[in-house]
Write a structure and sequence with these properties.
The complex is a heterodimer of chains A (about 70) and B (about 400). Chain A is an alpha+beta fold. Helix content of chain A is about 20%, strand content about 20%. Chain A has one domain: Alpha-Beta Plaits, CATH 3.30.70. Chain A contains two helices and four strands, in the order E-H-E-E-H-E. A two-stranded antiparallel sheet of chain A has the order 1-4. Chain A has a two-stranded antiparallel sheet with strand order 2-3. Chain B has a single domain, classed as Cytochrome p450. Chain B has about 400 residues and is an alpha+beta fold. The longest helix of chain B has about 30 residues. Chain B is globular and about 55 Å long. In chain B, the strands form three sheets. A five-stranded mixed β-sheet of chain B has the order 1-2-8-5-3. The chains are: A alpha+beta (about 70), B alpha+beta (about 400). Chain B: Belongs to the cytochrome P450 family. Chain B: Keywords: Heme, Iron, Metal-binding, Monooxygenase, Oxidoreductase. Chain B: This is AbsX.
């Protein structure tokens, strides 16, 4: 899977960095930074939670074709 | 048709009228003080969807923006910074403030908050019981924190606390305007002093005073931002501390669970308290700029929408036994973020700017208080506490405690 953050939508709520600190952080400007764009499948559940919690809809996940499970909502 | 708002009968549960309404679906028409009607949203999914929908405007200066209470007719509220602006102006201002309210900055502030909270408890213990917890503890914590963050002298706290309550709890528009104008004049003078200081002086206001231009941040913008942050920064958090203490004391099993919980379980416990108390009772007020179809209803262009936090936070689709207070309900995935689905801080681009600061202050406040004063108890039964009435923002005028 590949994790994407749209910094033009980010409002710095911080949910993502709290939910998956190994994948999301924020920069000096307070806005989201993806620190691991291709995290392992173990992170999927937490990343889905981060995507769901993001109030400004700045996060998305794309799944590789060979990923076995269904794509996230 | 139900009239809105309705007072609570329990400090940490929504009014019985809302509870009844919530049983009949996610959207309802309710009647406001001036006879107009507004959509009240009690469903969690519908509330989230509407608050994230760009077809709904937060612009308080629009003539069709709903006036939920008489005090909100005061001109001072009409263009209120950040919460009352739509993009693109909202986004420009919000991003200017993002570094100051970021997780990293909040984490850096924590030690200082621990220290000041400890000092307040020292003073309470030195004076001995009884204590008035709002004045002695719940109000000074956020008030000192926001003063320092903004660069507002804490020596002036009696003035700005009184005027904030005067503004937010005024019975009518004239009362709100008078209190708001006093705060405006005060901040105007403060910002002038910062403009004269080389480098801008202390705090967020000092930093932004050096950034005033005629494009992204006018002087009037900065004054409006200062007002919004000052009033938004202490009243909500102080009343959340007070009502959070009441909620914990009224649930001895949960207080015991809090004390026994490892530090990593406390963020979710704080979010459960935020869910239960829903201190503002409102996640957001908006006006539709287009017809919007949702859950079989049509919100027409020009109609007002009010998302209820106390009710969306008790949607049985999201929360099992939603009226039960359970600090471990979110245990599981997401670690420190596992309890964050509630709408107490709103949703969409207007979700509370200070939410991470508030969470940190709350965790420190409850932990310090119950660690240091394990025998703390209410000196007045919860049902007899002098509570705010007639509005949406919940709170108690006084919280007498003993130990």
């Amino acid at each position: 899977m590949r994790v994407h953050a749209d910094r033009s939508r980010c409002m710095a709520a911080g949910h993502c960095a709290v939910t998956v600190p190994g994948v999301f952080d924020h920069g000096e400007d307070g806005l989201v930074v993806v620190t691991d764009e291709k995290p392992g499948e173990d992170y999927l559940e937490e990343i889905e939670l981060a995507v769901d919690l993001c109030p400004s809809r700045a996060l998305s996940v794309t799944r590789d074709q060979h990923d076995s499970s269904a794509p996230p909502k | 048709m139900l009239s809105y708002p309705q007072d609570r009968t329990c400090p940490y549960q929504p009014s019985p009228g809302y509870r009844e309404l919530g049983r009949s679906g996610p959207l309802h028409k309710v009647r406001l003080w001036d006879g107009s009607t507004i959509w009240m949203v009690t469903g969690h999914a519908a509330g989230r969807r509407l608050l994230a929908d760009p077809r709904l405007s937060a612009d308080r200066s629009r003539p069709d923006f709903p006036v939920v209470l008489p005090r909100f007719e005061a001109p001072i509220f009409k263009p209120i910074a950040i919460i009352g602006f739509d993009p693109p102006v909202h986004d420009v201002h919000r991003r200017m403030l993002a570094p100051d309210f970021s997780l990293k900055h909040v984490r850096e502030m924590r030690d200082e908050v621990v220290e000041l909270t400890g000092r307040l408890v020292d003073d309470m213990l030195r004076k001995g019981p009884p204590a008035e917890l709002v004045e002695d503890f719940a109000l000074p914590i956020p008030s000192m924190v926001i003063s320092q963050l903004l660069g507002v002298p804490y020596e002036d706290h009696v003035f700005f606390e009184e005027k904030t309550v005067g503004l937010l709890q005024a019975k009518d528009a004239a009362g709100a305007e008078a209190a708001g104008q006093a705060l405006w004049d005060y901040l105007d003078e403060l910002i002038s002093a910062k403009e004269r200081t080389p480098g801008g002086g202390e705090g967020v206001l000092g930093r932004l005073a050096g950034r005033i231009d005629d494009r992204d941040l006018t002087r009037e913008d900065l004054l409006r931002i200062a007002l919004a942050l000052l009033i938004g920064g202490h009243d909500t958090t102080s009343q959340m501390i007070a009502l959070g203490v009441v909620t914990l004391l009224e649930h001895p099993d949960q207080l015991a669970a809090w004390r026994a919980a490892p530090p990593e379980a406390l963020p979710a416990a704080v979010d459960e308290l935020l869910r239960m108390v829903s201190v503002t009772d409102v996640s957001g007020v908006r006006v539709a700029t287009e017809d919007i179809e949702i859950d079989g209803e049509v919100v027409r262009a020009g109609e007002g929408v009010l998302v209820s936090s106390s009710m969306t936070n008790r949607d049985p689709e999201v929360y099992e036994d939603p009226y039960t207070f359970d600090i471990h309900r979110a245990a599981g995935r997401g670690g420190a973020a596992s309890g964050r689905q509630h709408l107490t801080f709103g949703f969409g681009i207007h979700q509370c700017l200070g939410q991470n600061l508030a969470r940190m202050e709350l965790e420190v406040a409850f932990s310090t208080l119950f660690d240091r004063i394990p025998g703390l108890r209410l000196a007045t039964p919860a049902g007899e506490l002098p509570a705010r009435s007639g509005g949406t923002m919940q709170g108690v005028h006084r919280l007498p405690v003993e130990w």
